[in-house]
Amino acid sequence: MRLGKLALAVIVSALLSACATSYVDGAIESKAYATAFYSVSMYHNPAPADQVKKAAQRIKEAAGPNFQNEFLAQTLSPLNQIGESETYFLNRRLYLDRAKETGLLSEAGAEKVELALGRQIASNIVLQKDVSDRVKRAYPKLPELVAEAKNVEFQHALDGKLKAFADYVGVYRSVKAESPEKAQMLLPQLRIQASKLLAEDKGSSALNTVMGAYSDTKDAELRALVVKHFQSPSLSREQLTAYGKDEFSKTIVAEMQRRETKLRVTSESDDPFVDELATELPKSNEWISIDDEAKRTLTLSRLRFSEREGAPAVQTQTVSQLDFATLLFIPRNASVLFDYTTTKYDLNWSMNVRDSQSRKAKVIAGKRSAEKVECSNLRYRNVFGGEGTLDTVPPVVQEFCSRNNTVRFDAVREGAVREIAKEAADFVRSGDGG
User: According to the UniProt entry, where is the signal peptide (predicted)?
Assistant: First the structure.
């Protein structure tokens, strides 16, 4: 048993090695030397030393006498695309060390690569991005590069050249730790970028980021942007409630009161939907509540209403294609038949809704229909006209009878009520301006 496991491990290892070798050969053949070497320099799955040496030798032979310059150029090229993950930088560290050991990079070339990687990491630190201790230990020259990166990213922030608002906040925090006065110089740009972000993203994600910036700066203009964003219709009751703490509690309470709509639903006719709508309206819009004492009234007036369930129609269907299993249980040349009952349901409505506050009215109209199929009396009929029962249901019969057999006419009606309620709720809220 133990020998079997050992043999399997050897086979798997050989297969993986063959795959890796094949990939390296393909990359070298297409002159992607850095890519080929990177594939044997993965931090979490490093290739054996002999495989690394073989890859390096093949790269040298393929690239020719100028291999170091070619390899350096290919190595530096993708570093313009800044990486952020721990794995990215640890892989690059192993790649760099192995390239130097095998002679693919000269001392000067390796120093250029390490400097480029170190600057990326230093920028991430200044931007307050997550950089693990393991990455920091892998790049010992980081402390001096961080000081340089602070000046570079500070200037980028002043010039409005950073990619994301979170980057501006990161630079602000990094600079503030050493010089609160210098950090104040970033406030105008923070305000500009926060305003842009909130204009593009009306949801809670952008708001959370700007609130974080306000928490750091206590800037009155950032606070005003936050308060204004509380009025965004895309923020739900639950989200607003979560923001209603500390200094924003009164603001949130006022905003929620502004959004709240209390309604009394009445009918000028014997409207069959009036009670159901009163229940469904708050479900259609979380800011609407039904109150019999409310001053604002939504009045329904039926214009047309038709609800009709047709008479069941029974038909007999002969199964033309029978599966082999069914044929085994019926006489030779017998046919299989079943009855199916079709019932149709139609619902049409047209009503006028009038809002006492806006003094506007709207006609809400629509229709829904459904068809229910129920099967019965599955049987076979032999060539002499005799009939018998079947113990199993042929697949084609199962498919036909399962299509609409679960249709509930009550559910169709409930769907119509939801549709009317949604349209009525939107009409009411449009009168609120939200």
Answer: 1-20
